[in-house]
């Protein structure tokens, strides 16, 4: 008995004819290479300008401490010309001028911390999550150090010590504060400068590149593993999803522009 079943050639033809013209145009069109995408991302890299602010803040901190020592020795401890100090500071006094300068320096550190937080948050949204987490504690450390110095200064002023002892302790606090805060600012400046010089791709692109060209590459830290912090993993996933949404939007715009050009 001859049974007439569906021919495989007919089925294949039906499958071929079922494809839409849009799919044919997408498949037959030129594909964007990975290297081209990486080069486009590098061109759109935005540097973090806070290394200039941290360098300037470091210089101002050194100048403030040097001037404070000069004012304390010449005007407060009266090892210099007291009349000249009285003409410069008037009724304020040298010790009060040092305290006012300390407050102004703290305000500058506060403004620097807010500016750094703003620019690093922008880098975080662009996919540089690892660098953001690495610098998060460092960029807040100078403000913590200066705030601690202010607290010690308030305790010193309210202790009711003699003027000579109070001046020496004030200079000691300023010196220790400089020795601790200045290396933090210098290290922050170096790290941000290196980040701007490398102009690396976002973390996701680096992981994809390492998986494509390295067989023995280490696994990513996106998933949850034993011994890891669940809150940190969830936060990383949220940052990653936010970046991928923005990245997909950017790629869609590029595809539309390429389609309009062709």
UniProtKB/TrEMBL annotation:
One of its GO terms (cellular component) is late endosome. It is a multi-pass membrane protein. Keywords: Membrane, Transmembrane, Transmembrane helix. It holds the Pfam family TMEM192. The chain crosses the membrane at residues 56-77, 97-116, 137-161, 167-190. InterPro entries: TMEM192. It is found in: Membrane. Its main location: membrane. Belongs to the TMEM192 family. PANTHER family: TRANSMEMBRANE PROTEIN 192 (PTHR31592:SF1). This is Transmembrane protein 192. It comes from Sphaeramia orbicularis. The gene is tmem192.
């Amino acid at each position: 008995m001859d049974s007439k079943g569906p021919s495989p050639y007919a089925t294949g033809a039906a499958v071929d004819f079922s494809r839409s013209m849009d799919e044919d145009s997408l498949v037959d069109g030129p594909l964007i290479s990975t290297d081209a995408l990486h080069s486009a991302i590098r061109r759109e890299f935005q540097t973090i300008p806070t290394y200039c602010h941290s360098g300037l803040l470091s210089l101002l901190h050194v100048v403030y401490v040097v001037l404070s020592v000069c004012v304390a020795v010449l005007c407060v401890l009266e090892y210099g010309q007291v009349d000249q100090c009285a003409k410069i500071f008037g009724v304020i006094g040298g010790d009060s001028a040092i305290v006012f300068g300390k407050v102004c320096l703290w305000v500058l550190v506060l403004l620097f911390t807010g500016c750094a937080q703003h620019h690093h948050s922008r880098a975080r949204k662009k996919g540089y999550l690892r660098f953001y987490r690495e610098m998060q504690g460092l960029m807040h450390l100078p403000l913590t150090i200066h705030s601690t110095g202010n607290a010690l200064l308030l305790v010193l002023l309210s202790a009711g010590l003699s003027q000579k002892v109070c001046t020496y302790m004030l200079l000691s606090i300023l010196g220790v504060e400089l020795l601790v805060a200045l290396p933090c600012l210098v290290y922050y400046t170096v790290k941000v400068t290196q980040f701007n010089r490398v102009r690396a791709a976002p973390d996701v692109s680096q992981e994809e590149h390492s998986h494509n060209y390295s067989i023995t590459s280490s696994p990513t830290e996106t998933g949850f593993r034993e011994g890891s912090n669940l809150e940190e993993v969830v936060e990383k996933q949220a940052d990653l999803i936010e970046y991928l949404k923005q990245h997909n939007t950017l790629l869609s715009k590029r595809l539309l522009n390429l389609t309009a050009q062709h």
